Amino acid sequence: MTKDLGFDTLQVHAGTEPDPATGARQVPIYQTTAYVFRDADHAAALFNLQEVGYIYSRLTNPTVGALANRIAALEGGAGAVCTSSGHAAQIMALYPLMGPGLNIIASTRLYGGTYTQFTQVFKRFGWSAKFVDFDDPQAVADAIDDNTRAIFCESIANPAGVPTDIDAIAKVANDAGLPLVVDNTSATPYLCKPIEHGATLVIHSTTKYLTGNGTVTGGAIVDSGTFDWSASGKFPSLSEPEPAYHGINFHEALGGMAYTFYSIAVGLRDLGMTMNPQGAHYTLMGIETLSLRMQKHVENAQKIAEWLEADPRIEAVSYAGLASSPYNERAKRVYPKGAGALFTVTLKGGYDACVGVVNNLELFSHVANLGDTRSLIIHSASTTHRQLSSEQRAAAGAGDNVVRLSIGIEDADDLIADLDQALSKATG
Ligand SMILES: *Cc1c(COP(=O)(O)O)cnc(C)c1O
């Protein structure tokens, strides 16, 4: 067919074909470490990147490769690499770009674990992150210096579900000749394709919506294939002979696939943050229904946010899909299919009411996760943000009186009834 395939078709078919050896219609789990070379010349061609094929599963595996190609197709990228977790994807995404003394500009609104990685782990590599409010693109531009190598944000940002104006940030990145890296975990390519808004790299925690049912951890990095790595001289790993891979110049040799090949040939080879084939299988199963689930997640989130906003026990609801949200116009423009299913709720009863709600909910699970088919809740102040001071928690959008909801795909009326009874018990 010459027609461009739609999202619902791609999520089922992209990256896969009937197994060439057996005709198996579903993607087999290639549970193997190594692959037999046809002969010594074949082996040499594979190691020289002259021929594409399989060497060793730390680098490539057919099951994992099928998932990478499917995610690349859904995001509209040139290539993708899967990783062992979302956090692995973040480090791997930046690895080809960074070095000691270099920095990234990152949004203040991030997943808690990402903030820790950027502040603590980065230091050990000699990297650093400057945190800026991405609602102010000029502040992002002002923070860039000669040592900046990337700009990093989430599409629909944790924990309050704030939709980032990716077009505005991409313009700043483009003007500075820097790649924009967007963590698209909570929007998924169904609600937003950051590459269409100017992003260079898109990363995922496939642990969340892409798998969708809370079974495995995984990550992915998608490259748009359009960034000119050679223009500024700032990305020598990609634009100059790479000593870690017998002096190959990746950009010259591989063009739009330079970043993807580098991430496999050097990133996965040397860092080893590889996704396993069993994990890729679960995510391939999940991704087949991504659009159907996201439609229900978003529909439920909208209903529940509206119900909560009208309830006298509630002080505020952060959902950008609400007409009252300061981000409603932006959400409609950048995320027209919905503002995601992640938001925070501020309770009038404060810390005690939050703990009471969490303890009394029956359908919502109290877990440190998001993007499951099941509805989830977490009171950050008594869990993930426990080590922070009250002021630090408030600044992170995880104040003592705030709970974060990740709305699942159950019946919205059942979820509302559950919230209603838990609120009643918690607030007496
Ligand atoms: C969960 C999450 C991560 C980390 O992913 P893991 O798979 O848990 O390592 C990164 N970013 C966002 C937005 C997340 O929700």
From TrEMBL:
Protein name according to UniProt: O-acetylhomoserine aminocarboxypropyltransferase
Cofactors named for this entry: pyridoxal 5'-phosphate
Top-rank lineage group of the source organism: Bacteria
Similarity-based family: Belongs to the trans-sulfuration enzymes family.
Segments for region (Disordered): 1-23
Signal peptide from the UniProt entry: none
The entry's keywords: Pyridoxal phosphate, Transferase
NCBIfam families (UniProt xref): OAH_OAS_sulfhy
